Amino acid sequence: MSSKRHSILPPAPSGPKPPVHFSSSITIADSAVLTGTHSIAIHGESVVHPRARLDSLAGRITVGRRCVVHERATLGAVGVSGRVAESGAAVTLADYVTVEVGAAVEAGDTVIGEGTVVGVGAKVGAGAVIGKHCTLTPHTEIAAGEVLPDYTVVYSNGMRRTDKRGMAELKNKGLARQIDVLRRIIPSNPGKFA
Amino acid sequence: MAVLTPYTFIQCPCSDSSTLGRPSDPNSSTITEADEDERTFDPRAPRSNFSLYPLEYLLYCEDCHQIRCPRCVSEEIVTYYCPNCLFEVPSSNLKSEGNRCTRSCFQCPICIGPLAVTSIETRPDPSLLAAPDNTAAPHSGPYALTCSYCNWSSTEIGIQFEKPNSIHAQLAKLRNGGSTRLTAKERKERRKDPAYRRYQATSSGEGESDQTENLDLETQFANLKAFYQNQLADPNSADTGLAALGDLGFSSPTSLSRIMSIYTGGSLQDRKAKSRLGAMREALKPDEGLQFAHLDESAAIETLRGEGHDGTASITQLVDQPPNLGEEHLHGRSRFISELRPIPYLLRTKRSKRCPVCRHIISKPEAKVQTTRFRIRLVAGSYIPSIAIRPLSLSATAGGGGSSASGATLPGALLEPLKPAHFLLTFKNPIFETIKVTLGAPAETPGRFASKVTVLCPVFEVDANTDVWDEALREGGATGGAGSGGGGEKGERRRGRYDEGSQANNGNQLEVGKIWERGRNWVSIVVEVVPASLRLDQGDAPLREDEDVLEIPLFVHVEWEGEAGGDDVLESVAAKDKGGEAREKRELAYWCVLGLGRIRK
Amino acid sequence: MSSRRAPRGEYIETETGNKVARKATLLGTQNIMLGGKTVIQPEVLIRGDLIRTIQASTQSGAASNNTAVSIGRYCFLSRGCCLRPPGRLYKGAFTFMPLRMGDHVFVGPGSVVQAASIGSHVHIGTNVVVGEFAIIKDYVRILDGTVVPPNMVIPSFSIVAGQPARLIGEVPEGGHEAFELRGLYKTVGNNPQPAS
């Protein structure tokens, strides 16, 4: 019964099929949506959950090593500013980046630094540059073009503070363990997007 | 502007000075009612703010037959518990330990989120940890409190713990920065220790150096208390001429012992108090409780230079901070974020409520923390009719629903000034008797902008809230139409109206004195309003906040026949055998306020 | 396998009275337990595929229990909400843990729920985020836009709001009936009835 319903569900990804550069060790769910004209590169051991959306219409999308893009997260949508990539890179995720459920990273030279967590439903505006090991708590909005220093925590509707725990290494290790599990339980189908 | 959904607020009679303090028996209430008819209740009067409640917030006293609100009931605490670990705290602990959780439940001083105990060294991922037991070596320390929302950690203020449990006790011994402090008990023991006394004796001889010792609040109070207690106990203390001034002087032992007894619970007011003593000297050493105020703020200014405004604590953060007896007196100095401490959770309570007049309990939860049942729960909603408001748009579909649960047809639509608008009021009867409702509304709303109000059908009856199954049986044809006027018939009528509702509401049904629609235990009537124009003339005060909301006061008078003296019999039981017993006429009258919507400016 | 089946009605109604929208996404359906009479609106996403990969050492016998999301009776999952089991490191390895939900739980549109447990008679508003391993007891109201931080415990009769969530009020005695979702259940499905 479930298989039947799934066959109905994902309406064929609208738009053009982008050229992809996948590492052989990635996990990408069948129902993830990849669309656009520029290339989408996903590096080693990264995980793309079902129903995540990567849109390269505005420029190149690069996902680093050991990143996790959760369901309903959007990478590369064109924001209200309408800004598109000037250098050709719409969205760049460094290594160990987590983009949580329903978060949106807009296109336009947007960079997310290593080990950063983009919380549930958070929005990163076009051209924003997020430093390393930052935490954007759920529903945080980062304005277009904003630059966030390393270890910044954005919480409670835009309050800022610096993460002084010194946990970056351990956090990355934890993420690696999470990826170990996700690779086992999410059926990967990179062939579909090739 | 926020969308305004129509609302009904009910006025609790407690705010009415004429009914205060005496039970309203039927006879007297008719008199006050007559008075009330004279003056219209003004929902915008400053006092009204404190007496208007949504129906859910109101209770009902079965003995006084009156509405009771959260403001007039008297509360009694049944259970204290921690909202985080959900453990019950015996009330005896409250006196000794205070009103906060003394286990390991803390809130973040930065963002108020919950703090979790996490192991510092072997912890692989703090943001994903829920409990300290998830490391390969479970008993590795040290531990810290971390916030999983804003990533604050107690290591930021230099605090870490040796054990993952009883954090509260560990924290009480730690100052920010990690240095330990003595607890009250240890301090007492230290004072007895001869080695410490010798040290004290030598250091006090050196004079100044010792006086800079930082006394925390608790120690300072203990020292002062001991010092004055000694003076009181010492009959040979210097008897100066000030004693002649009597007991009023600041330095008089009697007034002091009186003050001290207020703060310490009477232990000082004993044998010596009566023997009049002379003036006492003040504390001169830290050991006696002397603490110099640190008026030199250069260090604070220096920190402010370094950390800036972001480094200081906000007012909310300061307010959330529990009083910390472990630090010295701040003397009004503001604090930095780096000085904030984890906040032990404030305990919550389960409370029972009593009627203020007859002292009967009208709400009583079960004492156990985890249960949600109530032993007694007399809510107004099961005694007085609920009033639901729905805009009645004569062009759009009217819908047939009885309550407004499905939402307004045009949510948040603004009311056009000077254009008649219609609203459906649905009265739902919760009791097992037929009620007669009489409505009274002023022709014009009070306030600066007087809107015209017409209740098209001010007198009507609402059928009893019979059991749903009774109605189902009747609809099945077994006992059709015999009891309270044919429920099945009504059901059909209602359905019929629902069907035609979409096409036939062409205004000709808006007849004065006619019920718009009725169902098993509900009746809908129409209210016509002509919203006032909000135009301001020259020199008028500007529009105040929410002055554009059209609120109409409505006086509701409910009459029904109830069991005579059936105080302890549930009405559901009483409804089953209707005949036989003596019937008594009951009535209830109250003001309510209908918020209909905003008027277009 | 034809995709031209839509005219049969927006919802699939099961024997136990569940109404599941055809446009809802249920991943790992074998790991999702529905108690009956539960409404799942279109565009809802339930991650039943995120199963527990490490069983608790105490219950070695019950290893076959793979339920990732269990939902009681008369729950209402509004359009666009997302339920997903919370995950954490347990004894050095990562695992997801089941998400349990009682009866009469309303989850508002666009909300994301990663709680460990939600009691009965709980109202979660619009665009709420319930963080991982939060525990929500019975009769709790979470207002629109609230962010419930991970690990938070919300005791019964609380009204919470804010980012992060804090207690802002108590559910009054007369407000218990408002959590009842039987009426709402009837208003959706292939043969919706008007609210009564």
From TrEMBL, chain A:
One term of GO molecular function: dynein complex binding
InterPro entries xrefs: DCTN6, Hexapep, Trimer_LpxA-like_sf
Keyword Cytoplasm: yes
Keywords, in A-Z order: Cytoplasm, Cytoskeleton
An annotated GO BP: mitotic spindle organization
Compartmental location: Cytoplasm, Cytoskeleton
SUPFAM superfamilies hit by this protein: Trimeric LpxA-like enzymes
Coiled coil: none
Major place of residence: cytoplasm
Record-linked Pfam families: Hexapep (PF00132)
Record GO cellular component, one term: dynactin complex
Gene3D superfamilies xrefs: Hexapeptide repeat proteins
Family that this chain belongs to: Belongs to the dynactin subunits 5/6 family. Dynactin subunit 6 subfamily.
PANTHER family for this protein: DYNACTIN 6, DYNACTIN SUBUNIT 6
Job of this protein: Part of the dynactin complex that activates the molecular motor dynein for ultra-processive transport along microtubules.
UniProt-recorded name of the protein: Dynactin subunit 6
Organism: Corynascus novoguineensis
From TrEMBL, chain B:
Quaternary structure, from the entry: Subunit of dynactin, a multiprotein complex part of a tripartite complex with dynein and a adapter, such as BICDL1, BICD2 or HOOK3. The dynactin complex is built around ACTR1A/ACTB filament and consists of an actin-related filament composed of a shoulder domain, a pointed end and a barbed end. Its length is defined by its flexible shoulder domain. The soulder is composed of 2 DCTN1 subunits, 4 DCTN2 and 2 DCTN3. The 4 DCNT2 (via N-terminus) bind the ACTR1A filament and act as molecular rulers to determine the length. The pointed end is important for binding dynein-dynactin cargo adapters.
Species this protein is from: Corynascus novoguineensis
Record field: compositional bias (Basic and acidic residues): 183-196, 489-500
Phosphoprotein keyword on record: yes
Record field: compositional bias (Polar residues): 17-32
Keyword annotations: Acetylation, Coiled coil, Cytoplasm, Cytoskeleton, Isopeptide bond, Phosphoprotein, Ubl conjugation
Residues that span the membrane, as ranges: none
Compartments where located: Cytoplasm, Cytoskeleton, Microtubule organizing center, Centrosome; Cytoplasm, Cytoskeleton, Stress fiber; Cytoplasm, Myofibril
Record's GO cellular component terms: dynactin complex; stress fiber
Sequence ranges of Gly residues compositional bias: 477-488
Stretch list, region Disordered: 17-45, 178-213, 474-505
Pfam family, one: Dynactin_p62
Full protein name: Dynactin subunit 4
Protein family per UniProt: Belongs to the dynactin subunit 4 family.
Domain of life of the source: Eukaryota
UniProtKB/TrEMBL annotation, chain C:
Domain of life assignment: Eukaryota
A GO cellular component entry from the record: dynactin complex
Matching InterPro entries: DCTN5, Trimer_LpxA-like_sf
UniProt keyword annotations, A-Z: Cytoplasm, Cytoskeleton
Gene3D superfamilies, sorted: Hexapeptide repeat proteins
Family: Belongs to the dynactin subunits 5/6 family. Dynactin subunit 5 subfamily.
Name of the molecule in the record: Dynactin subunit 5
Organism, as annotated: Corynascus novoguineensis
